C-alpha cells in the first residue's frame, strides 16, 4: 500500500505586472518550486505586463511535501541574472485553486529552506536542579546568501534570556557538533520556548536570516528527549504594504491524494474491464463500458478517459476498448456531420490515446513547425494589395510544405495508431456507406486534424515542439494555418469560403490538400498490411522504451584533465529503462533541461533497491568535501537524495495500479447512477432478468465495498 500525491498545475496568465525594463515593459516568466526545489520554468513572454502562458504540468509529489511557490521573474539579456519581480507563495491547505491570486513582495525573512539536526533533552531529577540540553549537530540545504555560492551559517540558541552562538564558514551543510546547556526555569514551563535560529554571518552588511525552530518546554519535559531533523521555518510573517498592487497571477491547481493498494486488490476490476471489451462479453446484459459512458459527467469525462486509456494500454486492449466506444458512438449518431464532434467519452478517449505515450512521436514526424523559423515576416511596408498577395503566396507555400510532411510521415506512424484508425475507418464505413467515401475520411480527420494537428500548430510550445511561445505576428500565421488544416479536415471548401472570405485565395491549395489528406488516410489505415510493417514496429518499440536524451556536461577525472582546461566535457546522453549511455555528438533542446533530466533519472531509479539515501552535493578537493568540510572521502553524504518529485512526461511507463485505483474511485462516485441506468436499460430492452445476470451485476455494484477490504 502506497500513498501517491499528484498536483495538476496550469499557469494561465498574469496581469498588471510591475515595469522592470526602461521601455516601460517586462519580459516575465515563472518558476515553480516544490519545497524550494525548482521543478518548472515557463517560457518567457517578451515585452508585456499581461503575459499569457497557458502551460500545463502534472507533478508527482512525495506525501511529505509542504509548499508550492510561484516566482515571477523578468528576463534580460543584458543582465547575467534575472530580476525577481514578485512571488506568490501558495500553501496547499486546500485541494483546489482556480482564479486570480495577488502577487506579494518577497520578505527575506520568509524565504527560508533547509533542515537542522538537533537533540534536545531535559537532564536531572529529584533534588538536582534540572537542565535543558540542546545539542546542535548539523544542518543541510541552507539558502545560499553569499556571492561564492555558499553561506557562513551560525546557530543561535536562546532560552530564558541566555544565548549561545557557533559559526561555520563557507558551507550550506555545516556541522557544529556542539552542546549548549541552560538552567531550566520551572516557572516558565507552560510558556517557555527554546529558540534555535540559523543566520548567515556577514562582516560588513547585516546578517541574513536562514530560518528557525521553536520548541515548547512543557512538551519537552513530558518527552524528556527529542531528536531528529527539523525543517527551518520563517520568521513571523510581515504584511507587505504593497500587497494587492503588484499584479496577479491566474492559476489552476488541483491536488489529488490516492492510497494505492497491492495489485491483487484490483484484479477483479481489471478482469471485468478486460472482459467488457473482449470476446468474453456476455451479450445478455448491458455493456459495462456503456454504463460508464452513460453515467460519466462532462466535468469528469476527460480524466476518466485518460485513466481508461492508460489502463487498457497496460492490458494490451486499448484497440478493443476504443472499438467498443466507436460502436457506441455510431449507434447514437444519426447525422454523419456531427460524428465525433461532441465531447463524448469516445472523443475524449481517442484524444487521450493520441497524446499518451505514442502521439508525440507522430507529431515529431509531421514536422508541423517546419515553417516556424520563417513565418514571422508576412507583413512589410508595402501597399495593401501587395501585402495580401504576398501573404497569400506565403500561406500557400507553408500549407503545401506542411501537407507534404504529413503525407511522408505515414510510414513512420506507430503501428498501434494505424490499427486504431483502420478500425475506426471500417466501423464508419459500415455505419454510413457513403457513395462519395467522405464520412469515413472525416471521421479520421475529426481526431487527427481538429483535435491533434491543428492544436499543435497553434500552440507548438504546449505540445513540446518548441521551447518558447511564438510572437504575436507568428502566432497569427500559425492560427491561419491551423484554420486551413481544419478546413481540409472538414473536406468542404465551399462552406469555409463563405464563412472565411480570406480563404478564397487558398481554395486551390485547400482542394489539393483534401486530395493529399485522403491519400494520407488511405495509406495510414493500410500501413499494417504494407511492406513497412517492420519499420512501424520498430518505431512503436522506440516510443515505448525511450525515456530521456540530451546534452549533459560530464566531469572528467583529474589525470585526464590537462592544466588550465575545463574539467567538464559535453556529451550527448541517452537514458532508457535499462541503460545510461553517452556519445560525443547529437542535437537536442529542452526548455527545462535540468529538471527533465532529474525527473527522468528519478523515475529510472524508482525501483533500484541500492539507491543511496544521502550524497555530497559538492566535490572532494584539497582533502575535504566542499559542501560540508568533511575530510574523509568515504564519509556519508551531508544531504538527502531527492527522489520524490517528478514531472509527468509522455514517455512515462504505465502505472496500472494507480489507474485502477482512479477508475475505482470514479465507479464508487457513480455507483447509484450506474444502478439506475442498468435497470432502465433492461426495462427498455424488455429482457427478463435471470438470477445469474442479476447476481453478476450485483457483484459489479458491490465491488466498490469489497475492494477496500
Automatic annotation (TrEMBL):
GO terms for MF: GTPase activator activity; zinc ion binding
Keyword Amino-acid biosynthesis recorded: no
The entry's keywords: GTPase activation, Metal-binding, Repeat, Zinc, Zinc-finger
An example Gene Ontology biological process: intracellular signal transduction
Coiled-coil stretches noted in the UniProt entry, renumbered to this chain: none
UniProt xrefs under Gene3D superfamilies: C2 domain, GTPase Activation - p120gap, domain 1, Pleckstrin-homology domain (PH domain)/Phosphotyrosine-binding domain (PTB)
Residue span(s) of domain C2: 1-105, 112-230
Record-linked Pfam families: BTK (PF00779), C2 (PF00168), RasGAP (PF00616)
Entry keyword Zinc: yes
Residue ranges constituting the Ras-GAP domain according to the UniProt record: 300-490
InterPro entries for the chain: C2_dom, C2_domain_sf, PH-like_dom_sf, Ras_GTPase, RasGAP_CS, RasGAP_dom, Rho_GTPase_activation_prot, Znf_Btk_motif
Domain of life (superkingdom): Eukaryota
Protein name: RAS p21 protein activator 4
Native species: Cyprinus carpio
Lineage: Eukaryota, Metazoa, Chordata, Craniata, Vertebrata
Amino acid at each position: 500500500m502506497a500513498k501517491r500525491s499528484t498536483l495538476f498545475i496550469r499557469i494561465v496568465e498574469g496581469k498588471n505586472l510591475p515595469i522592470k525594463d526602461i521601455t516601460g515593459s517586462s519580459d516575465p516568466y515563472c518558476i515553480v518550486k516544490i519545497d524550494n526545489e525548482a521543478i518548472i520554468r515557463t517560457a518567457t513572454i517578451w515585452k508585456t505586463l499581461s503575459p499569457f502562458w497557458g502551460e500545463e504540468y502534472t507533478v508527482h509529489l512525495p506525501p511529505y511535501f509542504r509548499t508550492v511557490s510561484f516566482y515571477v521573474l523578468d528576463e534580460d539579456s543584458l543582465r547575467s541574472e534575472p530580476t525577481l519581480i514578485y512571488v506568490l507563495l501558495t500553501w496547499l491547505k486546500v485541494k483546489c485553486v482556480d482564479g486570480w491570486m495577488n502577487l506579494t513582495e518577497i520578505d527575506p525573512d520568509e524565504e527560508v529552506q533547509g533542515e537542522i539536526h538537533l537533540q534536545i533533552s531535559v537532564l536531572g531529577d529529584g533534588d538536582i536542579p534540572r537542565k535543558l540540553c540542546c545539542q546542535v549537530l548539523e544542518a543541510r540545504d541552507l539558502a545560499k546568501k553569499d556571492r561564492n555560492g555558499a553561506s557562513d551559517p551560525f546557530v543561535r540558541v536562546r532560552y530564558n534570556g541566555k544565548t549561545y552562538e557557533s559559526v561555520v564558514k563557507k558551507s550550506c551543510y555545516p556541522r557544529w557538533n556542539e552542546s549548549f546547556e541552560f538552567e531550566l526555569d520551572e516557572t516558565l514551563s507552560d510558556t517557555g520556548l527554546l529558540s534555535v535560529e540559523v543566520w548567515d554571518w556577514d562582516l560588513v552588511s547585516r546578517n541574513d536570516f536562514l530560518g528557525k525552530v521553536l520548541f515548547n518546554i512543557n512538551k519537552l519535559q513530558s518527552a524528556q528527549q527529542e531528536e531528529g531533523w527539523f525543517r527551518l521555518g520563517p520568521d513571523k510573517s510581515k504584511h507587505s504594504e504593497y500587497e494587492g498592487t503588484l499584479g496577479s497571477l491566474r492559476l489552476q491547481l488541483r491536488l489529488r491524494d490516492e492510497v494505492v493498494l497491492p495489485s491483487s486488490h484490483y484484479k477483479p476490476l481489471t478482469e471485468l474491464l478486460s472482459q467488457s471489451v473482449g470476446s468474453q462479453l456476455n451479450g445478455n446484459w448491458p455493456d459495462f463500458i456503456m454504463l460508464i459512458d452513460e453515467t460519466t459527467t462532462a466535468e469528469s469525462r476527460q480524466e476518466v478517459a485518460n485513466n481508461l486509456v492508460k489502463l487498457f494500454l497496460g492490458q494490451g486492449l486499448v484497440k478493443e476498448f476504443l472499438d467498443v466506444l466507436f460502436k457506441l458512438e455510431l449507434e447514437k449518431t444519426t447525422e454523419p456531420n456531427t460524428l465525433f464532434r461532441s465531447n463524448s467519452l469516445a472523443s475524449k478517449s481517442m484524444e487521450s490515446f493520441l497524446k499518451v505515450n505514442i502521439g508525440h512521436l507522430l507529431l515529431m514526424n509531421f514536422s508541423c513547425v517546419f515553417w516556424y523559423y520563417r513565418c514571422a515576416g508576412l507583413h512589410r511596408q508595402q501597399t495593401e494589395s501587395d501585402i495580401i498577395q504576398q501573404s497569400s503566396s506565403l500561406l500557400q507555400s507553408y500549407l503545401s510544405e506542411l501537407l507534404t510532411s504529413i503525407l511522408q510521415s505515414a510510414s513512420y506512424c506507430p503501428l498501434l495508431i494505424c490499427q486504431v484508425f483502420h478500425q475506426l475507418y471500417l466501423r464508419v464505413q459500415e455505419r454510413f456507406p457513403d457513395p462519395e467515401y467522405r464520412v469515413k475520411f472525416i471521421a479520421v480527420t475529426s481526431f487527427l486534424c481538429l483535435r491533434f494537428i491543428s492544436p499543435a500548430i497553434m500552440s507548438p510550445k504546449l505540445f513540446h515542439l518548441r521551447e518558447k511561445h511564438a510572437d504575436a505576428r507568428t502566432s497569427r500565421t500559425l492560427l491561419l494555418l491551423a484554420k486551413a488544416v481544419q478546413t481540409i479536415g472538414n473536406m468542404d471548401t465551399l462552406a469555409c469560403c463563405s464563412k472565411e472570405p480570406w480563404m478564397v485565395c487558398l481554395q486551390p491549395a485547400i482542394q489539393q490538400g483534401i486530395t493529399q489528406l485522403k491519400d494520407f488516410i488511405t495509406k495510414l489505415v493500410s500501413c499494417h498490411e504494407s511492406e513497412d510493417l517492420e519499420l512501424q514496429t520498430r518505431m512503436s518499440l522506440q516510443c515505448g522504451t525511450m525515456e530521456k536524451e540530451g546534452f549533459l556536461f560530464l566531469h572528467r577525472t583529474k589525470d585526464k584533465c590537462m592544466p588550465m582546461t575545463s574539467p567538464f566535457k559535453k556529451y550527448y546522453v541517452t537514458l532508457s529503462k535499462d541503460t545510461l549511455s553517452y556519445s560525443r555528438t547529437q542535437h537536442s533542446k529542452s526548455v527545462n533541461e535540468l529538471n527533465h533530466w532529474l525527473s527522468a533519472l528519478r523515475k529510472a531509479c524508482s525501483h533500484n533497491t541500492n539507491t543511496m539515501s544521502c550524497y555530497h552535493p559538492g566535490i572532494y578537493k584539497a582533502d575535504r568535501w566542499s559542501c560540508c568540510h568533511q575530510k574523509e572521502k568515504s564519509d556519508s553524504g551531508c544531504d538527502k537524495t531527492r527522489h520524490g518529485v517528478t514531472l509527468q512526461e509522455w514517455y512515462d511507463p504505465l502505472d496500472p495500479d494507480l489507474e485502477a485505483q482512479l477508475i475505482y474511485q470514479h465507479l464508487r462516485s457513480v455507483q447509484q447512477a450506474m444502478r439506475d441506468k442498468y435497470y432502465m436499460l433492461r426495462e427498455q430492452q424488455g429482457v427478463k432478468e435471470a438470477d445469474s445476470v442479476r447476481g453478476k451485476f450485483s457483484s459489479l455494484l458491490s465491488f466498490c465495498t469489497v475492494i477496500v477490504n
